[in-house]
Each structure stands twice: as structure tokens, then as C-alpha cells.
Amino acid sequence: MRQGGPVGRPEIPCGFNEIEGIYEWSLDNSKEIAKGWIIRAMSIAELAERTSIDAQTLESTITKYNDYCRAGYDADFGRSKESLKAIEGPPYYAFQVETTVADTKGGARRDKEARVLDLDGKPIPRLYAAGEFGSIWGFLYQTATNVAEALVFGRIAGHNAAMNPPLE
Questions:
Q1: To the nearest whole number, what is the mean pLDDT of the chain?
Q2: What's the pTM value of the predicted model, to 2 decimals?
Q3: Residue whose C-alpha is closest to residue 62's, from 79, 48, 83, 50
């Protein structure tokens, strides 16, 4: 898997913040291993130690996953047979994955009650939105507020949707 292609992408388009060309990821991830971005270990126990993961938990997780690979179906996440590749080694590899915030604008407009508005600006009955589906700010590109908007309008939308009487 490590040699199957870059783990990272050399380009990550984020609206106005194109970072293409800042770093060119190696095709086989070897440069990133040398930099320490990808951890290489010769045993599951060593990998667990180097990543601060409980060794018994890591071992049992890999065993369970490999069982799913042999069965051809991932019962935990529903992955298809084609996407399952057994973890066999050594060597073993790991890297840290972190969340990032990227957002999009456009889509449906909504009001302060999280109601989706029609083309005339009138609420569409029983239709609410939050997060990346539209914005209270319309097509304005704002930064550092997207998570707050998703949380605030998710709560507002959920509360207001729950207040609707059931359809008959």
C-alpha cells in the first residue's frame, strides 16, 4: 500500500487558498518516511510504541481488520471487498491524520431559523439546513466561522424541525 501512490496530495484546492506547488509529495512516500512524517516499524508492538497506541488494542484491531479482508466484507464500516487490503508485514507504517476546515459556499439560502428559502425568499415548509449546505451569509466567503455556523445552525435546525407536528 505504501508504494501504491502518495498518501498526501501535492495540490489541495481550498477556494482562494491554492497551495499547489508548495510541497511535492513523493510517489512512493519514501521522502515522507525519511522526514518522519510517516512512521516505519518492523513490528506491530514497535508501531504501537512509536505512535503511543495501546499495543494490545492495535494488534486486535489489525487482526479483526485482516479477518474482514479474508471474509471480503468489513462488518464495521461496510467497505466492499475491492477496497479491503490485508495489513501484512513487516514493515508497518502509520501517519497522523488531522481534521482541517475547508468550506464551500453556494447552495440553498437559509434564514436565522435555519429554514431553507425558496427563490422568492420564503421558507420552504419543513426544510431546514446547516453546515456546508448553504449559508446564512449567502455567497460571502468567510473564514474561521464555518464550524461555529455548522454547530449553531445544526442546533437551530434540529430544534425547529423537532417542533413540527408529524405528517399524517
A1: 81
A2: 0.54
A3: 48
Determine whether 75 is exposed, middle or buried from the number of CB atoms within 10 Å of its CB (0-12, 13-18, 19+).
exposed
Residue 10 has pLDDT above 60, yes or no: no
Domains defined for the chain, CATH in brackets:
2-95 (3.90.700.10), 115-162 (no CATH)
**In this structure, are residues 113 and 130 in contact, taking their beta carbons and an 8 Å threshold?**
no
CB 133, CB 127: distance < 8 Å:
no
C-alpha to C-alpha distance for 129 and 124, rounded to whole angstroms: 11
User: 43-47, 60-64, 154-158: which has the minimum mean pLDDT?
Assistant: 154-158
3-class DSSP state for residue 141? coil
d(CA 44, CA 29): 20
